[in-house]
Amino acid sequence: MIISASRRTDIPAYYSEWFCNRIKEGYVLVRNPMNTHQISRVRLSPEVIDGIVFWTKNPVPMLKRLKQLEKYNYYFQFTLTAYGPDIEKNLPPKNQVIIPAFQTLSREIGKERVVWRYDPIFISDKYTIEYHCRYFEVLASKLASYTEKCTVSFIDLYKKTEHHMKPLKIQTVSSEQQLELLQRFVETAKKYSIYIDTCAEICNFSDIGVFPAHCIEKERFEKIGKCRLHVEKDKNQRGECGCIESIDIGAYDTCKNGCLYCYANSSKLSVNNNYEQHDCHSPLLFGEPDEKDSIKERSVRSFADRQMTLFDY
């Protein structure tokens, strides 16, 4: 089984101690976001966990805990954009903290285990196509030795993100603008030996050599773990998503990054209330189970076939 940690919140930035405590205990409790009184108990034993994908904008708190992950196969989806604190409100300075953290993480675990994400892309009077292209090259020049690829996507305006971003007066990115921007990104990326793919996009960009990403990726885990995985596409994700099956152990309304484009938070008040209930020793990300909750063991198993052939990797 693959663990996603997490599309719903930045676990490395805010909950790394909790995560490592769950690793020690060998299990985690996860509330069903559609029915919060349904709780799954998920085993975290290395015998059943084939890999972990960490999603983060700031891995600094996790850097000192990497040794605790030695028994697991894992990699990071690391979002690093050119937006300022008007958009990504609570991130540390990028030049002083985030970019050096990207570089340090890559040196520690290898660049094949640090995937750069430049997403979601939106356009406004400030964040124009020219702005994105200029600063994409700045970032690419600094990350070239520390990653293999960059995954990009264009913003989807859900109700909550549309409300948060209304003051910015963002513009719809037409298919022609998407193509122009990606063509320029590809030209830049080639200079730095980075390849581009796209996350859950409807448009087909194969003519310019850009293909759909598999952010939770079977082949990447097979290379890291040196075994084959018999795992299928995740049916719980939207059709354009290429990710394989995983269990997400995060919770909505718990990420304190404060990014205006975030679909995982409904309000700052909800985030603060939930964060106040966080206990790094609790099996839940925040709060405790009570008498109204039903806890059921989630059936998990390894998908790994460790019988290598002469031609594998």
Layout of strands and helices, then pairs:
Blueprint: E1 2-5, H1 11-14, H2 16-25, E2 27-32, E3 35-43, E4 51-56, H3 60-63, E5 74-79, H4 94-109, E6 114-121, H5 129-143, E7 149-154, H6 159-165, H7 175-191, E8 195-198, E9 211-212, H8 218-225, E10 228-229, E11 247-248, H9 268-276, E12 294-297, E13 304-305
Parallel strand pairs: 1-4, 1-11, 3-12, 4-5, 5-6, 6-7, 7-8, 8-9
Antiparallel strand pairs: 2-3, 10-13
Label this structure with key terms:
313 residues; alpha/beta; 3-stranded mixed β-sheet; 13 strands; 19% strand
Structure write-up:
By secondary structure, the chain is an alpha/beta fold. The chain is 29% helix and 19% strand. The protein is built from 9 helices and 13 strands. The strands form 3 sheets. Strands 9-8-7-6-5-4-1-11 form an 8-stranded parallel β-sheet. The protein starts with a strand and ends in an 8-residue tail after the last strand.
Order of helices and strands: EHHEEEHEHEHEHHEEHEEHEE
Cα separation of the termini: 21 Å
Largest sheet: 8 strands, parallel
Radius of gyration: 19 Å
Pick out the low-confidence regions. Answer: none
The count of DSSP E runs of length 2 or more, i.e. the number of strands, is 13
SS class: alpha/beta
Which strand-content bin applies to the residues?
15-25%
Q: Average the pLDDT over all residues and give the rounded result.
A: 94
> What is the number of helical segments per DSSP (H or I, 4+ residues)?
9
Biggest sheet strand order reads 9-8-7-6-5-4-1-11
Specify the helix fraction band. 25-40%
Molecular shape: globular
Oligomer: single chain
